[in-house]
């Protein structure tokens, strides 16, 4: 009988029972697709990551799947949580690397930086490609898909926009916190919009007028791959950072933070920074459960 150790980590938080829960499964090599899919479905989290140290690449190897069997790439909570889990378990994933830190997600190199808090919690930053704004979407389409009045979705130069880093998501600026809280996604309409405008998920956000300590508040929906709502989405925070910079709302080489997951009672804090040749997404994770999977 085969068995695999696993940890469940809460991602984009340094407190247990907050952030985005992620199952991280420790293996010795790649598994077959059916095993990835079965284990991911059994956990039922928005994503499950599988990791092992690759002697060939001299780096941590990461693959991530949703409960529906969709393989997820990009620098999101699935990667951040996987790296943090390895570090918290004292796996020497950087021992054979120089000053540059990286892991391999499926077949792609993902650059990282790591620092530790005073209580030795790892704080990991993940590099994304510079953002590209691809297209705008009519506000009325999103108003219908989110069951909001049309005037609650911002228009003009700040209209909903399709933005790409490693992953392509739709950024949806909303009028205020009330509109963000009241959004109720229509899965069918969101999937139709995603197919028409060629994006994956929908990142709704608002920028508070008062100083709340967070530059933006956000919610994420991706029914096309089985995610009704996600408490923290690093792969969408990068495109949002690029969109905000494109709109001259944030500065280069400055760290900002947003909060996501409040509606789900899973508040998650994501830091983001736009640089001249990249976008960096960062945060912490904590282990909340451990166990063994029996095959």
Automatic annotation (TrEMBL):
It holds the Pfam family PhzC-PhzF. The active site is at 47. One of its GO terms (molecular function) is isomerase activity. One of its GO terms (cellular component) is cytoplasm. This is PhzF family phenazine biosynthesis protein. The lineage of its organism: Bacteria, Pseudomonadati, Bacteroidota, Cytophagia, Cytophagales. InterPro entries: Phenazine_PhzF-like. PANTHER family: PHENAZINE BIOSYNTHESIS PROTEIN.
């Amino acid at each position: 009988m085969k068995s695999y150790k696993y940890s469940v980590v809460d991602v984009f938080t340094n407190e247990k029972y907050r952030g985005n829960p992620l199952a991280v499964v420790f293996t010795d090599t790649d598994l077959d697709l059916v095993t990835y899919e079965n284990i991911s479905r059994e956990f039922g989290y928005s994503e499950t990551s599988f990791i092992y140290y690759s002697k060939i690449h001299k780096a941590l190897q990461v693959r991530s799947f949703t409960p529906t069997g969709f393989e997820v790439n990009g620098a999101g909570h699935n990667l951040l949580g996987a790296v943090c889990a390895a570090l918290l378990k004292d796996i020497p994933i950087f021992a054979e690397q120089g000053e540059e830190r990286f892991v391999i997600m499926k077949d792609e190199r993902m650059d990282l930086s790591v620092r530790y808090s005073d209580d030795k919690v790892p704080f990991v930053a993940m590099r994304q490609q510079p953002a590209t704004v691809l297209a705008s979407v009519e506000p009325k389409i999103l108003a219908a898909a989110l069951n909001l009045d049309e005037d609650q979705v911002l228009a003009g130069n700040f209209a909903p926009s399709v933005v790409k880093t490693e992953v392509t998501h739709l950024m949806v600026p909303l009028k205020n916190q009330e509109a963000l809280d009241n959004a109720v996604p229509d899965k069918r309409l969101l999937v139709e919009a995603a197919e028409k405008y060629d994006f994956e998920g929908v990142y709704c956000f608002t920028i508070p007028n008062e100083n709340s300590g967070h530059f933006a508040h956000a919610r994420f929906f991706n029914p096309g791959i089985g995610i009704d709502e996600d408490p923290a989405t690093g792969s969408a925070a990068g495109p949002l950072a690029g969109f905000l910079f494109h709109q001259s709302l944030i500065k280069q080489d400055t760290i900002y933070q947003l909060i996501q997951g409040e509606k789900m009672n899973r508040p998650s804090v994501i830091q983001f920074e736009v640089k001249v040749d990249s976008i960096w997404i960062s945060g912490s994770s904590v282990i909340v459960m451990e166990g063994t999977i029996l095959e």
